[in-house]
From TrEMBL:
Pfam families reported for this sequence: HTH_11 (PF08279), HTH_DeoR (PF08220)
Keywords: Transcription, Transcription regulation
Name of the protein described by the UniProt record: HTH domain-containing protein
Top-rank lineage group of the source organism: Bacteria
One annotated GO molecular function: DNA-binding transcription factor activity
Domain Helix-turn-helix type: 13-62
Database matches in InterPro entries: BglG_antiterminators, DeoR_HTH, HTH_11, WH-like_DNA-bd_sf, WH_DNA-bd_sf
Occurrences of domain HTH deoR-type (ranges): 97-135
């Protein structure tokens, strides 16, 4: 199972926290959708089951661990070893990755394709597209959404190239 940095960061946050955290709190802290947090929590539960540990949860209270200090240290060390070369993209980085992906793609791209490409939920991508749209206003490039086809960027070649140059220089 491939475990991503956002998964590890959320897991560490839960291990270190003395009280429960809600999915809403985690989503806000890591700037991802609640659905992405729920996917990560499902993966965490699967991973913990292989270690005969569990994540506690209660509706309207949140999620938390009931671990000894030794168990906390062991889990943190194991999480540090998982996928340590992967980079977690914050929202600004995801927005830039979406723009580059759309600029390089000649046709339409679906929300699902972008979500899989960036390993986040569809809802996270939908939130990111608002920022993509705002950034496009600085250029004569527009985000075109077409039902049943997906999304794409459209604009004059010169403006698209200027946008790509701007992003690559960040």
């Amino acid at each position: 199972m491939q475990l991503y940095v956002v998964f590890r960061l959320q897991s560490k946050r839960l291990i270190e926290n003395e009280t429960s955290l809600t999915t809403k709190d985690l989503a806000k802290e890591f700037n991802v959708s609640i659905r992405t947090v729920k996917y990560d929590l499902d993966n965490l539960r699967d991973w913990l089951a292989s270690k005969e540990l569990s994540l506690q949860s209660q509706r309207n209270k949140g999620v938390w661990f009931e671990l000894t200090d030794v168990q906390k240290i062991v889990l943190k060390n194991e999480l540090n070893e998982l996928g340590h070369n992967e980079v977690f993209a914050n929202q600004d980085a995801r927005v830039n990755q979406i723009i580059v992906h759309l600029l390089l793609n000649q046709g339409y791209c679906t929300i699902k394709e972008l979500a899989e490409y960036l390993t986040v939920s569809n809802n996270t991508i939908l939130g990111d597209l608002d920022k993509v749209d705002a950034q496009m206003r600085m250029y004569d490039v527009s985000l075109v959404r077409r039902a049943g086809h997906g999304i794409r960027l459209m604009g004059p070649e010169k403006e698209c190239r200027s946008l790509m140059e701007y992003i690559l220089q960040l």
